[in-house]
């Protein structure tokens, strides 16, 4: 089958949507499909074009059996408001002729990855021009999140953006998203139940696994073996609510037995560094390459996943899968009834979003109880292997795509709330 994937993010980005899109593409190629990708040069989460890539030139390459076209992209240093819209528009415009060129390739399926919805109309158009199946996969409800988090403002702009989103979603043959609550959100936006499916993010439980020794990063960061490491790893942006974790680190400033490690880049890193960067119990490092990812995740005795309450069920943090697969205890900030709460509890600790006091209390409890940390870590690992394994999720997705070509029907939204694609 000829499969065309279209989205702004792709490998070698080390975290977020690019990682999952690349793994999807490479898995499909490995099973014998012809896979092409139209994407931007890597820039996330640092918000700068990666070394060796150009922001201004078109380029193509082959990576692990996938043919990739990269198109120019403008990347703002401060991705907020109009600048963020211009950033997404730059990819939508530059990728337009490249995607239209693929009309002559005649794909069987066009899969658009959101964010960004701004380029999805072109993907839908190419699918219609070629008779291909049009599939939209939603990693984040970017419109809702942008207004909820204050990245975009204005009632007229919000109504216009949501109306555009509703019209677009209804045009696709299938709309998939990564959690049950996000499936329900698609239904509320008017997408037909028969078109909506759940396609969860996955954990690579073979590459990410518990180590029977201390991570080598401990010695590199001058962290004593006896100290408890609290790790945040991933994008440092508005959705994360990292100021709460920084406040928790300040609360432990006089202790040498609890060390906070902030790993990642993004627009909020400077603010977090200003709050706790000079503390002796804090370390700041950049995202690690893939061959050190397991060492990074095993650095943690406690993973912390902060999230703002107003982002609940609009996004599902992709980093959670790796945390669980690593077999380390997890503390997440989520409200009861949200997808994140249900994913973490009872195999982890959940505290209210924005509540630094509760977060400090939870860290203190787990830091003093190695047996409980081990129990939670084992439960998370078991869940990752049983429910989130990469092979199981992507094998089911590949089966769904093959069924589309054969003209058979797929999983409905009613089933999707209880199982993956």
Question: What features would you describe in this structure?
Answer:
This protein is of the alpha/beta class and 421 residues long. It folds into 2 domains: 2-202 and 389-416, Rossmann fold (3-Layer(aba) Sandwich); 217-387, Rossmann fold. Helices cover 40% and strands 16% of the residues. The chain is built from 16 helices and 14 strands. It has helices at 17-30, 81-101, 120-130, 142-148, 155-171, 180-188, 217-220, 242-251, 269-276, 293-297, 319-325, 339-344, 356-367, 370-387, 390-406, 413-416, and strands at residues 2-6, 34-39, 59-63, 66-70, 109-114, 133-138, 174-177, 196-198, 228-233, 258-263, 282-285, 302-305, 329-333, 349-351. An 8-stranded mixed beta sheet has the order 3-4-2-1-5-6-7-8, sandwiched between helices. It has a 6-stranded parallel beta sheet with strand order 11-10-9-12-13-14, with helices on both faces. Helix 2 (81-101) runs parallel beside helix 3 (120-130). The two termini are 18 Å apart.
